[in-house]
Prior knowledge:
The chain is of the alpha+beta class.
Amino acid sequence: MPHIRLSQRLWRHARPRHLVTSLVSIKTTSLGDLPRDGVRQPDPVILPVPATLFSRRADRLRVLLVAHPMADWLRFLAQIAGAQAASVSETPLPAPLPTPFDLAAIPLDLGWDATLRAFAPIADDPAFPEAARATLRRLPDLDTRALARDWLAGDLATTWAGESIVLAAALQVVFARHAAALDATAVRLLPQRGLCPVCASPPVAGVITAKGRSPGARYLHCGLCATAWNHVRAVCTGCGEAKGLALREIEGGSGAIKAETCDVCRGYAKMFYQEKDTAIEPLADDLASLGLDLMVSDAGWSRLGINPLLGMTGVAP
């Protein structure tokens, strides 16, 4: 799986002034997701529910932006998530597709225009920067389907950096709806367990559960289609190695957010712990915790997964 480094420009905006500059390293001790008395085996795959996915994400972003050093940016993304939520009810779920999805052939007709129209009111909100609003106003004049195909292939030119977040947000709606149309029991995990079994994208983060049928299980969450899949703990989600793993967090933090680093592949993935915060929404909490990415990246590890709303393009391994 390729490693990803975010731009230095983004890192400058992501560095919260109040964060300390040291990391606490905690060695992993889990033996994996072994069943315990009274705890059932975890579901291999959990498909998204678009009707609640984006509204919950918008609500979480609004909570996280309070007193956050990147509050204006998170507020803009909360509006984007709200627009995504408004668009998902306008069209029925599509017919199921074979998994993993062929990204180059994914239909961009059903609901695509409705999703883009849902973003339009944000362009009229003076609370947001004029550059962002101008980007939204340009969308009707662009071949957004062609640009979205380029985004999926990782070929979107840097000149479209402003549009990339909106394109990714529209694609999230498309892919979540296609994922929701599937039968979870028919979806099989991929041989490369660190990739989404529905669309073969890298995960945005992992969540260690504290509730449900299997407390303590780890689920990786796809940033594109929002599928969650079970992944054994104490192995790297990128290379699969069990040696050289450590959990690192910002000193004095709540313990809800940690970076799992691997000394074999020099990659890292964020892990969120529901035991410390039951309201965690992986994509939203990832956006609000870029200070941890900055520190881990500065220490020499590269991010394994993607968050489409960070302007990253391309999801194929």
